[in-house]
Amino acid sequence: DEVIKLLAVDLGASSGRVMLGLYDGKRIEMEEVHRFANQPVELHGHLYWDVLQLFHEMKQGIRKAAREHGTLTSVSVDTWGVDYGFIDRKGQLLYAPHHYRDQRTAACAPILEELLPPDEQFRLTGNQSARINTVYQLYADLEESPWLRETADRMLLMPDLFHYLLSGTAAGEQTIWSTSGLLAAGSAAPSAKVMNRLRLPLSLIPELVPAGSVTGQLLPALQEELGTGPLQVIAGAAHDTASAVASIPYGPGAETAAFISCGTWSLAGMETEQPVLTDQARDYGFTNEGCFGGGNRLLKNITGLWILQETQRGWAQAGEPVSHQEAVRLAAEARSEGYAAAVIDPDDVLFSTPGDMPGRIAAYCGRTGQQPPVSKGEVILTILQSLASAYAQTISELETLTGQGIRAIHMVGGGIRNELLCQLTADATGKEIIAGPAEASATGNIAVQLAALGAVKASALRELVAQSYTLVRYYPSR
Ligand code: LFR
């Protein structure tokens, strides 16, 4: 059988990668072709995507893949949610897209919320109201730069924008748009109420296509520049979390399985047929987003390994670096010595910005009447144990919301390389954990492309992922 070669461009919180996916008719194999930094650029107090540099790096990766691996079939980009750029009538990019950590939404958020209260945002769109959401960013842009109403022809969310730069075709992919706070809950169309109430021009929104649509071909000039043949450009599950969830190798009993996608953020949830729009879901902090193939992701954003990453960064800066393996070993040691870890709320604002995490953990413990962790192992265990507790809480909320007992939890994403976190999650939830794949977003990206190309049936993707990776199971130890 001929091997199909596809490229996934996965843009994450600190780095981006061009990954080669090889499909031989039975399994997917992934190989990293090119890795590059993805750091927001601060300019005059605002934060922007380094969009041209990223496009340059994408090209480097595509060129390298074509040189080393020959004929490529397709390429697709996935990124985090909510961010976008504007293009004008000639299709030119209008200034650098903002990064969601930019603070420009703060000033007009209260006005927006008067026009469209958070409760109503949730009821109308299924999205948890958050100031990073596209709706807040767009409202702020149009308030601050009203001329955009004349000059901007369309807005493209970041994967849409990169697909546009690659192919010249502008389309909006539905899973990434389902993070925007602009679409009607569970639908692939803008919410007329949201658009009208906030006076947002409908004409800015491009044609929306389902995840897994071939939207164009690499522009001839790029084919020549990069030495590829004709290469299909695919709007895959362009939201990184939608891609990660598309890669979950559910076995029998999928209806009773939850997922946790573990990275800098942790996204814990379940797939449901319809959005869950109850007050309880809103109050627990859940959001509803779209899946590849239809259906709904009911999930909660939990601060993930960010706190540990930031802790490690601090130690490295102080000249006492602790590697990943070392971190797991130290925490396991503290655990076997019987250290009863303190519990922090990872979503407390204290932990949301860069800085001295061990110091903030101590402050949090002081505030909540707990003994602060002392040794490095105790600090790490406290973080991991607290994440596991937050997961357990979310899983039990999911059971309440869906009225469904959860049998097993699929953990995917880079965080599963931390075996202790997986075991602690099994213990805290009392559920079986099925861990894998670690390369969830890139694998889901490739899998959805295979479906778009007609090489694999959409209904067979989960099985394909299960065949491609060794899954590791963890059971509650008590
Ligand atoms: C994860 C993620 C989450 C989204 C957050 C911000 O990378 O995409 O799903 O809520 O980033 O966009």
From TrEMBL:
- Record protein name field: Rhamnulokinase
PANTHER family attached here? L-RHAMNULOKINASE, SUGAR KINASE
Which Gene Ontology biological process is one annotated for this entry? glycerol metabolic process
| An example Gene Ontology CC term for this record | cytosol
Residues annotated as transmembrane: none
According to the entry, every stretch annotated as the Carbohydrate kinase FGGY N-terminal domain falls at: 7-245
Which species?
Paenibacillus typhae
Q: What is the lineage of its organism?
A: Bacteria, Bacillati, Bacillota, Bacilli, Bacillales
Q: Under the GO molecular function aspect, what terms does this record hold?
A: ATP binding; glycerol kinase activity; rhamnulokinase activity
Q: Which UniProt keywords apply?
A: ATP-binding, Disulfide bond, Kinase, Nucleotide-binding, Rhamnose metabolism, Transferase
Which Gene3D superfamilies does this one have?
3.30.420.40
Name the InterPro entries for this protein: ATPase_NBD, FGGY_C, FGGY_N, Rhamnulokinase
**Which segments constitute the Carbohydrate kinase FGGY C-terminal domain?**
259-452
> Which family is it part of?
Belongs to the FGGY kinase family.
